[in-house]
Design goal:
With 283 residues, this protein is an alpha+beta fold. It has twelve helices and six strands. It has two domains: 3-76, no CATH class; 82-274, no CATH class.
Length: 283
C-alpha cells in the first residue's frame, strides 16, 4: 500500500460511525507494525482528541502484538538469552528502546569492572570487586522509596536511574559477572531474589539488593524457617533464564495491580501465559 493510501486510510479514523471505525481499524491491523510511523505522524497533526485516542489504542495494540511475537520466539529459542528477555519486557512500556543500547550499557559496567578484576582472585574478592564498581562507582542500589514502581522491572530504567528491585539489580550484576566467567546464577527465594556463586570448591550467596552482602546456605535455611516455609531445592540452586523472566513478569503484574492499572496487569498476564507450561502463574 502506498503512503498516500495509508494516510487516506488513517484520516478516516475521524468518522463517527462505529462500524466504519471498526472496519478501518481492522484494515490498519492487517498492514502490521510498518504503519506505526504513519500513525504517529497523524497523531501529531490531528487535534481531535477522539481520533488521537483511537490512534494511540491502535499503536499500542500493534506494538503489543509485536511484543507477544518476540517473547514467544524468545521462549521457543534454545538460548533464551537473559538480556534479550529483559529487553522484550522493557518494550512493553518503552517500545522504542533498542537491545543494542542495553548491551552497550552492560558493556560499560563490565569494562569498568574488568579493569579491577583478576582471574586469580579468590571468589569472595571477585565479588568485592563487582560490589565496589556497582555500588560505589556506579551507585546502583535498592529503590526502597518506590519499591512497587513498574520501572523497577524495566532494565532500561534501572540502568538509567541505577535504582531497582532485587531481581533487576541481580540481572545486571549477573550479566556482568558472567561476562567475567564467574559461576554466578539467580536463585528464586520467596519474596527475595538473590544470586548464587557456585563451583566445585565454593558455594555462597549474594544479596544484591543489600549492596552485595555475602551469606551462606545456613542463612537461607534460617530465612526459610522464619517465614514458616518448607525448604525446597529451588531455594538453594540457580534457576534458569526462563524462570527469571517469568518472575520479572509476575513482579510487573503485581506492580500494575498496586498502581491500579489493571488493564496493563491483564496484558502482562497474557505475556506470562505465552512463556509458561501451564504451571503456577501466581505473583
Amino acid at each position: 500500500m502506498k503512503e498516500t493510501e495509508i494516510k487516506a486510510l488513517v484520516s478516516l479514523l475521524d468518522d463517527e460511525d462505529k462500524e466504519i471505525i471498526a472496519q478501518i481499524q481492522e484494515k490498519i491491523f492487517s498492514i502490521g507494525t510498518s504503519i506505526i510511523p504513519f500513525l504517529e505522524q497523524e497523531w501529531e497533526s490531528n487535534f481531535n482528541p477522539d481520533v488521537q485516542q483511537r490512534i494511540e489504542d491502535i499503536i499500542h495494540s500493534l506494538q503489543y502484538e509485536l511484543l507477544k511475537e518476540r517473547i514467544t520466539t524468545w521462549y521457543q529459542s534454545e538460548e533464551k538469552d537473559l538480556l534479550t528477555g529483559m529487553w522484550i519486557i522493557a518494550t512493553y512500556q518503552y517500545p522504542e528502546i533498542e537491545l543494542e543500547k542495553l548491551k552497550l550499557d552492560i558493556e560499560k559496567i563490565y569494562q569498568e569492572t574488568w579493569l579491577e578484576y583478576r582471574d586469580d582472585l579468590v571468589p569472595y574478592d571477585q565479588v568485592k570487586v563487582i560490589n565496589s564498581v556497582l555500588f560505589n562507582k556506579f551507585k546502583f542500589g535498592a529503590n526502597s522509596k518506590n519499591f512497587h514502581s513498574p520501572g523497577n522491572s524495566m532494565i532500561n530504567i534501572v540502568l538509567e536511574t541505577h535504582k531497582g528491585n532485587p531481581i533487576t539489580l541481580c540481572v545486571i550484576y549477573m550479566l556482568v559477572a558472567q561476562k567475567l566467567k564467574m559461576p554466578v546464577g539467580g536463585v528464586n527465594l520467596p519474596n527475595l531474589f538473590i544470586l548464587s556463586y557456585k563451583n566445585p570448591q565454593t558455594n555462597f550467596y549474594i544479596n544484591v539488593f543489600n549492596r552485595g552482602l555475602i551469606f551462606t546456605r545456613q542463612d537461607i535455611e534460617n530465612y526459610i524457617h522464619e517465614i514458616h516455609l518448607v525448604p525446597q531445592k529451588s531455594f538453594f540452586e540457580p534457576c534458569s533464564n526462563l524462570e527469571i523472566i517469568q518472575r520479572v513478569l509476575r513482579n510487573l503484574i503485581m506492580s500494575f495491580e498496586k498502581m491500579g492499572e489493571h488493564h496493563k496487569a491483564e496484558e502482562v498476564k497474557l505475556l506470562l501465559i505465552e512463556i509458561s507450561d501451564g504451571g503456577d502463574l501466581g505473583v
